[in-house]
């Protein structure tokens, strides 16, 4: 249970800092912008990695856990426990950000301003199509999980995995925020969508399915030995 709770806390970290930065500063001209939001997600992950990594490995992402499981590095029971912790942590993180945003003077309209939810199509970010969203989320997550599995294998230098993984997440957000808002993490997408509802819920399946498939392919590449060093 300690591992599962650590995943809850770590996913809360990620959503609190990443989604929180997008909600509080993302729409304000002259503040952090896309680069700042990307850094917030990456730095949030790095903080979580060194905070809970020794307990659970700091997956804080169901797609990562899927990749680790298919690579043969975790048990099925742990996969389920990690998923439960991750989705609860992301939902709690989104709830806290929603409450903070609501404390702004004049109030906060989630219908108008959203909650950092992921999406695609006309009216969302760059207006990328469903196809673009699917391709980006699949390949970005696959590459992300390849970095994670490679940086945490026995042959990799010790002590640097959290930093490398966090910086990779920054790069992924720099590229993807204008496409889908960048998910590469089903739990991160689930939390905000629960409170936003409407189109965010209707499009949620994309951010549940394709990051998970991307993580699965990365896991199978390591399980097959194609990318494994040990």
Structure description:
The protein has helices at 2-25, 33-56, 62-70, 76-101, 110-113, 130-151, 161-180, 186-196, 199-202, 204-223. The mean pLDDT is 94. It is globular, with a radius of gyration of 17 Å. It has a single domain (2-223), classed as Glycerol uptake facilitator protein (Up-down Bundle), CATH 1.20.1080. With 230 residues, the chain is an all-alpha fold. 71% of the residues lie in helices and 0% in strands.
Strand-helix topology:
Layout: H1 2-25, H2 33-56, H3 62-70, H4 76-101, H5 110-113, H6 130-151, H7 161-180, H8 186-196, H9 199-202, H10 204-223
CATH architecture label: Up-down Bundle
Q: Tell me, what is the CATH class? A: Mainly Alpha
Give the termini distance in whole angstroms: 30 Å
Helix content: over 70%
Count of discrete alpha- or pi-helical segments spanning 4 or more residues: 10
Computed Rg: 17 Å
Shape summary:
globular
- Let me know the average pLDDT: 94
Strand content: under 5%
Give the total of beta strands: 0
Tell me about the largest β-sheet: none
Total individual domains: 1
In CATH terms, the superfamily is Glycerol uptake facilitator protein
Q: Would you tell me which CATH topology applies? A: Glycerol uptake facilitator protein
Listing every helix as H and every strand as E from the N terminus to the C terminus, the arrangement reads HHHHHHHHHH
Broad structural category: mainly alpha
Contiguous runs where pLDDT drops below 50 for at least 5 residues: none
């Amino acid at each position: 249970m300690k591992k599962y709770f650590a995943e809850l806390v770590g996913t809360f970290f990620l959503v609190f800092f990443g989604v929180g930065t997008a909600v509080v500063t993302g729409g304000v001209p002259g503040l952090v912008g896309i680069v700042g939001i990307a850094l917030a997600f990456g730095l949030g992950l790095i903080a979580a990695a060194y905070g809970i990594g020794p307990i659970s490995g700091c997956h804080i992402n169901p797609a990562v856990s899927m990749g680790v499981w298919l690579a043969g590095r975790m048990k099925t029971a742990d996969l389920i426990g990690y998923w439960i912790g991750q989705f609860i942590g992301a939902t709690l993180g989104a709830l806290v950000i929603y409450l903070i945003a609501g404390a702004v003077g004049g109030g906060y309209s989630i219908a108008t301003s959203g909650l950092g939810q992921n999406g695609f199509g006309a009216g969302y970010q760059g207006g990328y199509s469903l196809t673009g969203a699917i391709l980006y989320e699949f390949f970005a997550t696959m590459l992300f999980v390849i970095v994670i599995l490679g940086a945490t294998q026995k042959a990799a230098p010790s002590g640097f995995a959290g930093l490398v993984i966090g910086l990779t997440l920054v790069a992924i957000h720099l590229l993807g925020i204008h496409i889908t808002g960048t998910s590469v993490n089903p739990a991160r997408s689930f939390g905000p969508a629960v409170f936003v509802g409407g189109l965010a819920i209707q499009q949620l399946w994309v951010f549940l399915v394709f990051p998970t498939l991307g993580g699965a392919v990365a896991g199978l590449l390591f399980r097959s030995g194609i990318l494994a060093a040990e």
